[in-house]
Amino acid sequence: MNDERYLAYLSLFNRERDYFECHEVMEELWLEEGRSSLLQGLLQAAVGLHHWDNGNRSGAAKLMNAALEKLNGYADIVLGLDLSRLRQDLEISLRALSSRPADAPFQAFDLHIVDETLRSAVDQ
User: Fold this and answer.
1) Residue 114 DSSP SS3
2) How many structural domains comprise the chain?
3) Residue 53 sits in a domain of what CATH number?
4) Containing domain of residue 57, as a range?
5) Has residue 124 been placed in a domain?
6) pLDDT at site 89
7) Distance in angstroms (rounded) separating the CA atoms of residues 22 and 45
8) Per-residue pLDDT tens digits for 45-81
9) Where are the transmembrane segments (predicted)?
10) Which of 19-23's residues contact partners 24+ apart within 8 Å by CB, and which partners?
């Protein structure tokens, strides 16, 4: 996908860790692209991390589970991302949310960009 909003989403997610803005950018793209479940899953992953980072553990778990449901139907590599790794990271986060004390620190993770051209565009 060669859309500036997608690049912005990836940069906001990986570099700035601004998950709220990820949501804003991706929601616009998701609506324009016909409400794709793939884009919705990426959106929900970011919102889940936003909730966790802000102490809303139940909201984080709900959105991460929803993201997994959306992303499970896709191949391991889609839109230049390693979705297999994203699914694993979401599962690890869900286990952490359910097994750690409420005051356990937030744990961010990166979206693994496997397409070199996409990675270069995001890194600029």
Assistant:
1) coil
2) 1
3) 1.10.3450.10
4) 4-116
5) no
6) 98
7) 10
8) 999 999 999 999 999 999 999 999 999 999 999 999 9
9) none
10) 19/46, 19/47, 19/49, 19/50, 19/53, 20/50, 22/46, 22/47, 22/50, 23/47, 23/50
